[in-house]
Specification:
The complex is a heterodimer. By secondary structure, chain A is α+β, with helices and mostly antiparallel strands. Chain A has a domain of about 220 residues: 2-Layer Sandwich (Alpha-Beta Plaits). Chain A is about 25% helix and about 25% strand. In chain A, a hairpin with a 4-residue loop joins β4 and β5. Chain A is globular, with a radius of gyration of 21 Å. The two termini of chain A are about 35 Å apart. By secondary structure, chain B is α/β, with parallel strands linked by helices. Chain B has one domain: Rossmann fold. Helices cover about 50% and strands about 15% of the residues of chain B. Chain B is built from 9 helices and 7 strands. A 7-stranded parallel sheet of chain B has the order 3-2-1-4-5-6-7, sandwiched between helices. In chain B, β5, α6 and β6 form a beta-alpha-beta unit. Chain B is globular and about 55 Å long. Classes of the chains: A alpha+beta, B alpha/beta. The interface between A and B is medium-sized, with 21 and 16 residues.
C-alpha cells in the first residue's frame, strides 16, 4: 500500500513524507514527526495528521550476520520476511514470528510484537540484543538491557515516540528447516479451547486457535486449534506463490452472509481435523502474506481490528460475553484468532502482551454501529483489567487507554520532543 | 563468480542490482560519492553473499580520475568482467532552460562523464578480449519532450554513443548493453501517487542482470516501454509539437 496509509485504510490524513535513505544522516527537523515503516499497523499509531512522516522502508540494509551464533544486525527498515529469506537457508529463524512477516524490524520493536510462540518465547523485545536510537537533538543512544536500560524499556513497545530506531541487533533461533509439523483439531466451546491450550503449551512451539465469530447458542466459542513444531523434513523447498488483491471493490464483499458462510466452511473443512499435518512455515505462520493487499477486501471505508488481552482468571467469563455481543451485533469477522499468552513479563514500558488470553478480530467499518460495538467490547475489557493492542487500534478512548496502560505517563519522559503521533494525541487527551 | 565494477553504486537501481549480484556470490567494486552510504551498502552486500564488496569514493565530474578508478577496480578485484554505469542526476528542466551553466553541468554528469568512462573501459576490456559494459540510459532519450528534454537529450547521447560502441567492440568480444528504464519508484518518489507505469528498483534490477548475463543488447525495463516508446517516436512532428508531454 502507499506510504502514509495504515493497514486498516482508516483514518486517512494529510501528512508530509520525508524519506530517510542513509542511516548516518541527521534526522530532519520537522516537528511533529514520526517514523513510518511498512504501514502494517492497523490504525493511527503510524500516522501523524498534519505532521511529518519519516519513511524508513529504504533503510533496508543488513550490517552483519554471524551464522555460528545467529546474531543479526540490520537497519530498522528491513522486513522480517527479508531476514527469513537471508537466514533460513543457513538454519536460523525469527525468534518471534508475528502474524505477518511484512513488518519492519523498527515496527516490530516499537510495537513489541508477539507471535504464536508467545507462551515460550515472549515477545520481540526479549530477543533484542541492542538497538540504536536517533534523537532529534542529534544524539544517538545505543540501548541494550545493560546500556541505557531505561531507554531500552521505553522504546520497546514505545510506539515510535522515543526517536528513530536506526539499527538493531537480534538473536535469531536455530531451526532444522522450513517446515512445521503438528496437528489441527476442532474445539466446540471455550473450555475445550482452554484445555487444549494448557495441554499444548508445554510440548508445542506454536499454538493458535481460530474462532467462529458468527456462531451462537450452543455453538458459541467453537473453532479450530492448531499447534506445531519446527521439523527436520526433506521435502523440496516449496515455491510459495503470492496473489495480489488487485483493486478496492466499491462495496465490500464482507457481509453477514459471507462471514457466516466462510466460518461454517472453515470449521467444517476436513483440514480442520488433521492429526499429522505438515505445513510450510509460510502457510502456518503467515497465511495472509500470500494474499498481498488483502486489506482492500473491506472496501474503500476500510476496517477495524480489535485485539484485546483478558487476564487468565477473568477470561473464562468475559470471553463468552464478548462473543455473544459480537454474534448478536451480526458484525462478526472472517478471521478471529485466539491465543493463550505465556507468563514471561514483557520488557517494554507500554508492551501489550501480558498473561491471559488474547482475542483478535476484524470488523468492516460500518461507521457508528461498529464504533459502538467496539466501545461495548472495551467496557468488558476494562471491567476485567485487560488491555487493547495499540498497534491494531484506531478508536479506543483516552480513558480506556490510560486504564490499560497506566505506565503511559512514565513514557512521556522519554518521548522525543519533536516526535508525536495521531494515536498518541488521541489517547493522551484528558477526559 | 563475476568481478563487477558499479559506478554510481548508491543509486536505488544500482543498489538493487548489486544485491542480485551479491546473492550469487559475485565480487563487487562500488564507486560513488558518499562514503557513509557506500560503506552501508558494502556491508549489506557482504551479508547477502558478495564474495567481495570494496568501496571507492569518487565524483563523476572528475574525468581525469577515471583511469585511476579503473586501475583500482581491476587491482582490487583481480581483473574486471563487467561494469555497470549507473550514475546520473535527474535534471531540473526549468533551471536548465534559464542557465547554460546548468545545462552544461547536466550534460557533464549525465552524458559526457558516462561516455568518457565508457571510452576508458572499452580500451581496457578490448585488450583482455572479453567483458560487458552496461549503461543506464533512459526512455527519456528516445524523443525529446518539453518537460525534460535536457535530461532526455543527454540520455539520447548516451544511447547513440553506446550503440556505436557496441558495433565497435562486437568483433573484439566485448558486449555493450543499453538499459532504458521508465519510471522507477525510488525513496525520493515515495510520496508520489503511482500509476501502473511505475516499476520497483528490484524488478528493474532483475532485467538488468538478465541483459548483462547475455540477454538483449538494448532493453526497456519494464518491457512495456518498448511498444510505448515506439508509439511516442512514431507520432508525426506536426502533431507531436502540439502535445504537452
Amino acid at each position: 500500500m502507499s506510504t502514509g496509509v495504515s493497514w486498516g485504510l482508516w483514518p486517512r490524513y494529510e501528512q508530509r513524507i520525508i524519506p530517510v535513505t542513509n542511516r548516518f544522516d541527521p534526522l530532519p527537523q520537522a516537528a511533529p514527526m514520526l517514523v513510518f515503516g511498512n504501514g502494517r499497523s492497523y490504525g493511527d499509531v503510524c500516522l501523524n495528521a498534519g505532521g511529518t512522516l519519516l519513511a524508513t522502508r529504504s533503510l533496508d540494509r543488513f550490517i552483519s550476520f554471524d551464522a555460528t551464533s545467529g546474531v543479526l544486525e540490520c537497519e530498522a527498515g528491513v522486513l522480517l520476511s527479508e531476514i527469513i529469506a537471508l537466514t533460513l537457508p543457513r538454519g536460523w529463524f525469527l525468534p518471534v514470528p508475528p502474524g505477518t512477516a511484512l513488518v519492519t524490524v523498527g515496527g516490530a520493536i516499537a510495537n513489541d510484537v508477539h507471535g504464536k510462540n508467545h507462551h515460550r518465547a515472549g515477545s520481540f523485545g526479549h530477543h533484542l540484543l541492542s538497538f540504536e536510537l536517533r534523537r532529534s537533538s542529534g544524539e544517538t543512544l545505543r540501548c541494550a538491557p545493560d546500556q541505557h536500560a531505561d531507554w531500552f524499556g521505553a522504546t520497546i513497545g514505545g510506539l515510535g515516540l522515543t526517536g528513530m530506531i536506526s539499527t538493531a541487533r537480534l538473536q535469531l533461533r536455530r531451526v532444522p528447516g522450513e517446515w512445521i509439523a503438528g496437528d489441527s483439531q476442532r474445539f466446540h466451546n471455550l473450555p475445550e479451547f482452554f484445555a487444549l491450550a494448557a495441554q499444548s503449551d508445554v510440548a508445542y512451539e506454536y499454538t493458535v486457535g481460530w474462532l467462529d465469530s458468527a456462531a451462537s447458542g450452543d455453538k458459541l466459542g467453537r473453532g479450530v486449534f492448531m499447534r506445531g513444531n519446527h521439523l527436520q523434513h526433506d521435502a523440496p523447498p516449496a515455491r510459495e506463490r503470492s496473489l495480489r488483491f488487485p483493486l478496492t471493490p466499491p462495496i465490500s464483499p464482507v457481509t453477514r452472509l459471507s462471514v457466516r458462510l466462510f466460518n461454517e466452511l472453515y470449521f467444517r473443512r476436513p483440514a480442520s481435523q488433521h492429526p499429522h499435518a505438515i505445513w510450510h512455515y509460510q502457510r502456518f505462520l503467515f497465511p495472509l502474506d500470500r494474499l498481498l493487499d488483502w486489506n482492500r477486501l473491506y472496501g474503500p471505508r476500510g476496517f477495524f481490528q480489535y485485539q484485546c488481552v483478558l487476564p487468565g482468571a477473568e477470561a473464562a467469563s468475559a470471553l463468552p460475553e464478548m462473543l455473544r455481543r459480537i454474534a448478536r451485533s451480526r458484525q462478526g469477522s472472517l478471521l478471529v484468532v485466539l491465543k493463550q499468552f505465556g507468563n514471561l513479563p514483557s520488557l517494554g514500558l507500554l508492551s501489550f502482551p501480558r498473561p491471559g488470553v488474547t482475542l483478535a478480530l476484524d470488523f468492516p467499518n460500518r461507521g457508528e454501529p461498529t464504533l459502538q460495538l467496539l466501545e461495548s467490547l472495551d467496557a468488558i475489557t476494562r471491567s476485567v483489567g485487560g488491555a487493547v493492542y495499540p498497534a491494531k487500534d484506531a478508536r479506543m478512548s483516552a480513558q480506556s487507554f490510560q486504564q490499560y496502560f497506566p505506565a503511559w505517563k512514565r513514557l512521556q519522559d522519554y518521548i522525543d520532543p519533536k516526535f508525536s503521533s495521531s494515536f498518541w494525541r488521541r489517547v493522551t487527551r484528558s477526559w | 563468480m563475476q568481478r563487477i565494477l558499479i559506478v554510481g553504486a548508491t543509486s536505488a537501481i544500482a543498489e538493487a542490482t548489486a544485491r542480485l549480484f551479491a546473492s550469487r556470490g559475485d565480487a563487487l567494486f562500488l564507486a560513488g560519492r558518499s562514503p557513509s552510504r557506500l560503506e552501508a551498502i558494502a556491508d549489506d552486500l557482504k551479508v547477502r553473499g558478495a564474495n567481495l564488496a570494496a568501496t571507492y569514493v569518487f565524483d563523476a565530474r572528475a574525468f581525469d580520475r577515471f583511469p585511476a578508478l579503473l586501475q583500482a577496480a581491476s587491482a582490487c578485484l583481480g581483473g574486471l568482467d563487467a561494469a555497470l554505469i549507473a550514475h546520473g542526476m535527474l535534471s531540473d528542466q526549468i533551471a536548465c532552460q534559464r542557465s547554460v551553466e546548468q545545462l552544461r553541468e547536466q550534460f557533464d554528469i549525465n552524458a559526457l562523464s558516462v561516455m568518457a568512462l565508457c571510452t576508458d573501459l572499452a580500451n581496457q576490456l578490448v585488450s583482455q578480449g572479453h567483458g560487458v559494459i552496461a549503461v543506464i540510459s533512459s526512455v527519456a532519450g528516445d524523443r525529446g519532450r518539453r518537460s525534460n528534454y535536457v535530461y532526455g537529450s543527454a540520455k539520447a547521447a548516451v544511447t547513440a554513443f553506446t550503440s556505436g560502441l557496441r558495433q565497435r567492440l562486437y568483433p573484439q568480444g566485448v558486449r555493450v548493453v543499453t538499459i532504458k528504464p521508465g519510471f522507477v519508484g525510488t525513496p525520493m518518489t515515495a510520496a508520489f501517487k503511482k500509476s501502473a507505469l511505475w516499476a520497483t528498483p528490484a524488478s528493474v534490477a532483475a532485467d538488468i542482470v538478465r541483459a548483462m548475463d547475455g540477454g538483449k543488447a538494448v532493453i526497456y525495463t519494464p518491457w512495456f516501454w518498448r511498444p510505448l516508446m515506439w508509439i511516442v517516436r512514431s507520432v508525426p512532428e506536426a502533431m507531436f509539437r502540439r502535445l504537452r508531454l
